UniProtKB/TrEMBL annotation:
Molecular-function annotations in GO: 3'-phosphoadenosine 5'-phosphosulfate transmembrane transporter activity
Keyword Membrane: yes
Membrane topology term: Multi-pass membrane protein
Transmembrane segments: 66-84, 96-119, 131-152, 158-175, 182-200, 206-227, 247-270, 282-302, 309-331, 337-354
Family from the record: Belongs to the nucleotide-sugar transporter family. SLC35B subfamily.
GO cellular component: endoplasmic reticulum membrane; Golgi membrane
Gene name of this polypeptide: Slc35b3
Record PANTHER family: ADENOSINE 3'-PHOSPHO 5'-PHOSPHOSULFATE TRANSPORTER 2, SOLUTE CARRIER FAMILY 35 MEMBER B
Name the record gives this protein: Adenosine 3'-phospho 5'-phosphosulfate transporter 2
Length: 386
């Protein structure tokens, strides 16, 4: 009888079955719950995937995902920065920064619509009110950033963007209730001091330095800080896809800019100028928008997988390399103060990266070393006594 009971319990414990066995003495019921992948339909299952340019990053490990995203950000945004400065080097184009943003948003909307048609999940998951806020912030950060190039040197604009970590931390505290340690605060202070020093150097050596550009890029920086936290919170809360985020935020932003340019009579002069230089304006703007779209796709993947602060750290490192390439490819005044202030900003970036990996790179304290030596002496004394 005992052997029979053991055999029955063994049969009932097999996974993937639902059996009802009757014997003369007992009833045996075995119920197995199907796995999550079996219960979810393929449509819902694809929501958890992070797809960038048709590539499903969810199939890779975390380090591989990070390497792919960082490589994409660096490659596409370095080309993006070069083309942006190239467009503004066209004589007479500097007053039309908002029109360039309008064209850029138009291309982004088309690219997002195409990408959305290529994926299975086409539903809009994030509420429309949230997209209206994100679109407004996106217009602010990109429009003001493009417009500031009419007043500032490109490296100065980039060094301001490198310090986006400061308002991102402030936005993280007020929007998501995050708390940062002393290392993060030190990184923010280093970036602030480096930014001030760089701006002072630019005002000394650049004859066309204008405080209006500083105000514009500062406002763009604040909007950029808020948008990273809002995007992270919206994508995690509603599980929205990258292509959905790009399509709706930039298409709504396109309407915002078009309405603004129409009301301020800034649309007609820009169209007239660009029609006279179609290759240097629309041609470069297309490549500029294409590389920017690819780059923003990898940035959104970084935000969704690793968070806004790490994404900002990666894009900040990319901007540092963009500054070097700007001085190599485009002639502009140079002073060693650029180097020292840039190194101070890099130190802030390093401190920020270190703060995110303190558990891996934790340095031993003097008290810890002393306790360890005392424990080793005690163990040696005990072994000798034994």
């Amino acid at each position: 009888e005992k052997q029979t009971e053991d055999n029955n319990s063994t049969e009932c414990s097999e996974p993937g079955t639902m059996d009802l066995k009757f014997t003369s003495s007992r009833k045996y019921i075995s119920i197995s719950v199907p796995s999550k992948s079996q219960t979810m339909s393929p449509h819902i299952k694809s929501v958890d995937d992070v797809v960038v340019l048709g590539m499903n990053l969810s199939k890779f490990s975390k380090p591989t995902q990070f390497f792919i995203c960082v490589s994409g950000v660096f490659m596409f945004y370095l080309i993006y920065g070069y083309l942006q400065e190239l467009i503004f080097s066209v004589e007479g184009f500097k007053p039309f920064g908002w029109y360039l943003t309008l064209v850029q948003f138009g291309f982004y909307s088309i690219f997002g619509l195409i990408e959305l048609q290529l994926i299975q999940d086409k539903r809009r998951r994030i509420p429309g009110k949230t997209y209206m806020i994100i679109a407004f912030l996106t217009v602010g950060t990109m429009g003001l950033s493009n417009t500031s190039l009419g007043y500032l040197n490109y490296p100065t604009q980039v060094i301001f963007k490198c310090c986006k970590l400061i308002p991102v931390m402030i936005g993280g505290v007020f929007i998501q209730g995050k708390r940062y340690n002393i290392v993060d605060v030190s990184a923010a202070l280093c970036m602030s001091l480096g930014l001030i020093w760089f701006t002072l150097a630019d005002s000394t050596v650049a004859p066309n330095f204008n405080l209006t550009g500083v105000v514009l890029i500062s406002l763009a920086l604040c909007a950029d800080a808020v948008i990273g936290n809002v995007q992270e919170k919206a994508m995690k809360l509603h599980n929205g896809s990258n292509s959905e985020m790009v399509l709706y935020s930039y298409s709504i932003g396109f309407v915002y800019i078009l309405f603004g340019l129409t009301c301020t009579s800034g649309l007609s002069p820009a169209v007239t100028f660009c029609s006279k230089h179609p290759v240097q304006t629309y041609g470069y703007a297309f490549l500029f928008s294409l590389t920017g779209y690819f780059g923003i796709s990898f940035v959104l993947a970084l935000i969704k997988i690793f968070g806004a602060l790490l994404a900002v750290t990666v894009t900040t490192g990319r901007k540092a390399m963009t500054i070097v390439l700007s001085f190599l490819f485009f002639a502009k005044p140079f002073t060693l103060q650029y180097v020292w202030s840039g190194l101070l900003v890099v130190l802030g970036i390093f401190l920020n990266v270190y703060s995110k990996n303190m558990d891996k790179f934790k340095l031993p304290s003097l008290l810890g070393l002393w306790k360890k030596s005392v424990e080793e002496r005690k163990s040696r004394t005990l072994s000798q006594t034994v």
